[in-house]
Model the fold of this input.
Amino acid sequence: MATNKRTYPNSNFAWYNDEDRLAIVCEDTTATSGERTKEKYDSFQGTGNLSATITGVTRSYALATYTTSSAHGLVDGDRVSISGTTNFNDAALSNQTVTVTGFSTITFGMTLSAASGGTESGLTATMTSLFIDNGLRITYTAKYGTIDAQTEDLKTEAGLDSGLHPAVVCYIKSRMFEDSGDVQRAQYFRAMYDKMVKQYPLRKSGVRTLSVPRL
Amino acid sequence: MTAKNIIEQIEKLFGRQQEQYMFQLMNDALDDIASHKRNFTTSKITDLKKHQRWYSLDDDVVDIKRVEVLDTNDRYVLVPKLADPHKILREDTDSNSTTWTASSGSDDSLT
Done:
């Protein structure tokens, strides 16, 4: 079944990283970018994929509570843009952090910069997220999990393949002999550990190559 | 194999040992294996945020294998890694621009 042509990531995304951060850049297709002009590559500037119709808003001091016509899907700290309200249309609403904890699935809170505006109802205002929900998937090689209880399994808790469990035993023995000053045995178990790690994964089958019998 | 199984094997040779020390040695072994094998791959999903260039990586990240962006058909599409980000972004600057304004987003400097 044919699907609609995607609109992103056609904007040529790319990534690079340093020691502890990942950078995402994409072609800046926004001619009048709010951040920069005449730069071809910039941070993602597209529209978010979560939106909802706001039907009403109430205010208690600086905290505004917005009600949507359906579940909004937001979580604490998400940033959204709101347009269409009458008394709450200040500039700050173009980029605001929302509070969700303590609200229902169709309401969210927002702390306004100024405690102004009265209750509004019967609205057809719009909330649009300033992010793509779950829009980035990073696949990486990771360290194994840590062990801190006797009942924990190295396979299920730490993610270490069963075939490498004996290597852990050899490593510990090597360290223990080293601590006790028995360098010879420490080196023996260290060599066994190195060999196990180097050779893993072992071949599942004993057949290394296709063996053609002589006729 | 559980941590208890390993401790039992060690204690047959060395006698009773402190539990915390055993855990520390096990975790040292896991870190050492991870640095050699790099075969434990996992994925993390996060929001793609407007005007945000940098995303912090968890401590357990050893090496990034691939990065994908969700497209409008709800499929993750592979995006390329810049081999030389300095080159592409350095050439990005338009010296004749008179309308250049300072970035209002979070830190987007090259490092």
Notes: The longest helix of chain B spans residues 19-37.
